[in-house]
Structures are given as structure tokens and as C-alpha cells.
């Protein structure tokens, strides 16, 4: 079983729409949680960390449910520039390497 | 300031040859990571260093793969006797601290093609 599971999509949404991505992780000892964004042919970049209480950064909201081992990302008022692959990422206790999901591809359509 | 750099950006080699991939982390970053990314997949961990010490090499696929960071800065990932299945994007990342919550900054990657 993979450490991190994501729906690969693609998600095609119109500008202005709200879209949500989910992922699940298999190891209950997972310690830190992130969403990274990867544009086509580019390197992954940190979008936001995910905290237990949930956190928001502008149009982006991340949630963590430790009991269900579930992470979500909500994007409101989608922009064309939001088109990218969104990678769900976790670390485990005692290890610093990142475990990546396969990524969910989002295309925002004019 | 300068980000993580990697060289070469593209490497085409014949099966059986050795290759060395270089990573220049952000200056002063303590931790350095190597990942491999196949098309349509997220990066997969290979190994990482804190300063010059290799902390975890559990992700290296087999003993043809090795990495070093002798002076705690530049790192080299070496693949001996390359095979076609080694073809992938190899990414390096660096982080300012050792804690798992620190952001990792990725380089542009080296696209390796083994013929």
C-alpha cells in the first residue's frame, strides 16, 4: 500500500469555481503534512503546510483529520494560474524525507 | 539569492555506463535530499544528508546507486552500470534545518535517459 494516496484527476474546472482535493496517508505515525504545487516541467514548490487546527492562506484552505488519516485542500475562486499538479506530502516520525502522493492535476478553464 | 542548482540538466547515456549527477544546494542549508521522479508520479525519496553525514539511504534502489556530500555542501549521486529502468528525473532538494517541518527547496532536476 502506498504511503500517500491521491486521486490523480484530472480536475477541469471553470474560472471562479471552488475545487477540493483529498488525500489519505497510511502511517498513523506521520508527523508533518504539506501541499506542494508542481507546474508542468518544473520542480515542486511548497504551497502550504497543513496544521491540525486547519489553516488558510488567501484562497487556499488546508485541513487535517488525524483520526481518519485524511488531508484536504480547498481552492476558492479558481484562477487560470492555479492550473498545476497538487502533491500531497507527509513525513514520518524520526524521518525527514518527504513521502509524496502521485499528485492531482488541476486545469482551470477560461 | 540563488536556488538549488543541478547539473547536467539532461544526460543521455548508454546502458552499462556510469553517471554522476551533481547538486548545489542553497548556501548554508544543512540538509540535502535526493529524489527520483517518474512521469506522472510524485518524487520518490532516495537518500539524504545532514551536513556531510548520510542519514538515510533506505530509498536507494540497489547498490549501483550511491551518494556523497564530502564537505557538507555539493552532493553527487552516482549510478554505476546504468540500466534502462534508471531513466527518470533525478531531483535534489535542500532545507535550512533538520526538522521535518522545514520546507524543502527543489532544484530543476537532471533528466537521465539510458539507451
List the helices and strands and how they pair.
The complex is a heterodimer of chains A (110) and B (115).
Chain A: E1 4-6, E2 11-14, E3 19-25, E4 30-38, E5 44-49, E6 55-57, E7 60-65, E8 70-75, E9 84-92, E10 99-100, E11 104-109
Parallel strand pairs in A: 2-11
Antiparallel strand pairs in A: 1-3, 3-8, 4-5, 4-9, 6-7, 7-8, 9-10, 9-11
Chain B: E1 5-7, E2 10-13, E3 19-24, E4 31-37, E5 44-50, E6 53-56, E7 65-68, E8 75-79, E9 88-95, E10 105-106, E11 110-114
Parallel strand pairs in B: 2-11
Antiparallel strand pairs in B: 1-3, 3-8, 4-5, 4-9, 5-6, 7-8, 9-10, 9-11
Summary, kept brief:
Chain A is mostly beta strands. Helix content of chain A is 0%, strand content 55%.
Can you tag this structure with a few keywords?
heterodimer, A: 110 residues, 6-stranded mixed sheet, 11 strands, globular, B: 115 residues, mainly beta, 7-stranded mixed sheet, 4-stranded antiparallel sheet
How would you describe the overall organization of this protein?
The complex is a heterodimer of chains A (about 110) and B (about 120). Chain A is mostly beta strands and about 110 residues long. Chain A is built from no helices and 11 strands. In chain A, strands 2, 4, 5, 9, 10 and 11 form a 6-stranded mixed sheet that branches. Chain A has a 5-stranded antiparallel sheet with strand order 1-3-8-7-6, with no helix packed on it. In chain A, a hairpin with a 6-residue loop joins strand 9 and strand 10. In chain B, the strands form 2 sheets. In chain B, strands 2, 4, 5, 6, 9, 10 and 11 form a 7-stranded mixed sheet that branches. A 4-stranded antiparallel sheet of chain B has the order 1-3-8-7, with no helix packed on it. Chain B is globular. Classes of the chains: A mainly beta (about 110), B mainly beta (about 120). Chains A and B meet through strand 5, strand 9 and strand 10 of A and strand 4 and strand 5 of B.
